[in-house]
Design goal:
This protein has helices at 23-32, 44-47, 81-93, 128-131, 146-152, 170-187, 203-220, 226-238, and strands spanning 5-8, 36-38, 51-54, 66-70, 73-76, 97-99, 105-108, 114-117. It is α+β, with helices and mostly antiparallel strands.
Length: 243
Amino acid sequence: MINNIKITREPRFSRKPGPKITLEEWFGIIQRDPELSFIISSSTKKYGTTTASWDAHPNPGKELSYLWGVDGRIVAQYPNEHLLKKMIQISRLLNADVVGEKGEIYDLGADGSLITIDKHPSLPKKSASKFVTTNNMAYGMGASTCSDFTKKTRGSGKIPDITELSLLERWEYYFYSWYQGYVTATLENMTDSGESLIFAGSHAERRIKDMEFLKSYCKKYPDRRFHHAANALIKSHIDGIGQ
């Protein structure tokens, strides 16, 4: 299987350059297609959902048929040939392309078979280890110890409206906000193309899973710095672990 395939109109990848795919466009596709349905989770009521399931997948299973609306793209993780073909059908409705991690484009041949077009052979990935290290200087919340993080955070990982929180309860929000800035700066240098390497479902789902990972790491390594936990989380996303 192939990791992180997206439906996109991004000019640097697509043969059909255009604006980002809006949520309205994505929701319209889901609502009009009887084979697609919204994924309902425990966080949906509060945060909504941008995730859909392809219910006609011949081999249904957890996340094997999931499609995420993320940052103006529609993303699938480890799609097999069946889901890739469905993505191509969707991409045609959106006047977009189905693009892989190295810029390759997936399409259907005249006989309906899956074909690959090597659109951008000159965009190799840089080594993630070159940018994600545990030796960099950290400032702000990243310089706090893991034990400080676990002592000042609590709950399931859900982050409510900050105006509803007490000062103590806001620590969780502050730590995760630091992580978001850190991951943004790290990913800025992750590939020559500028492509993001982290796709992990809707923002609410990703945040909950991220906080669970960070808390687990910091309980295991209380003497390390919070930025070490952030690096571990970034690497886990890149490796496809914990997503």
